Amino acid sequence: MKRKFFSILVSGPFLLLMVFLTCSCSAENWLTNVVMTNSSGQSIHMWTTGELPDLENILDPGESRTKLLETEVDYITTDITLTVSVSMGDQVLTSSSFTVGEGECTLNVEYSNGSLVEIE
After folding, report:
1. Does residue 7 fall inside a structural domain?
2. C-alpha pair distances (Å), 113 with each of 25, 40, 50, 66, 74
3. What is the pLDDT of residues 58-85, one digit of tens each?
4. Contact at 8 Å (CB) between 115 and 65?
5. Per-residue model confidence (pLDDT) at position 43
């Protein structure tokens, strides 16, 4: 009985350490600045992944706003997909998804003529 208890004490911390190392190495956080510009002639809501239309994201014509997004990814991920949406009042005008590759820090998106376009 003592021998069994001893082996649990020895292997217990080892197993706990292995789980901790696996969890900490399998994910990381990517930071991406999403720059949204309203190039239309009307005030709109413009928001991105993790947001909803509210007073914080109303853009008048010619205005821009930047949202810093933190996205948790696993170690094999090479790109992420972010969605930008535009609405006026309660009606969503358009919504588009954009791919951000590993190492890219900024996504620039412009709303003009009823569509969202990525600006390089």
Report:
1. no
2. 44, 6, 25, 21, 37
3. 999 999 999 998 888 777 778 889 999 9
4. no
5. 97
Q: Which amino acid is at 88?
A: M
In-domain check, residue 2: no
Q: Say if 5 falls within a structural domain.
A: no
From the CB of residue 88, how many other CB atoms can be counted at a distance below 10 Å?
14
Number of CB atoms found within 10 A of residue 58's CB: 17
Is residue 91 situated within a structural domain?
A: yes
Domain around 55: 27-118
Structure tokens at 40: 């239309």
**Which residues are CB-neighbours of 28 under 8 A, at least 6 positions away?**
72, 73, 75
pTM of the predicted model, to two decimals? 0.73
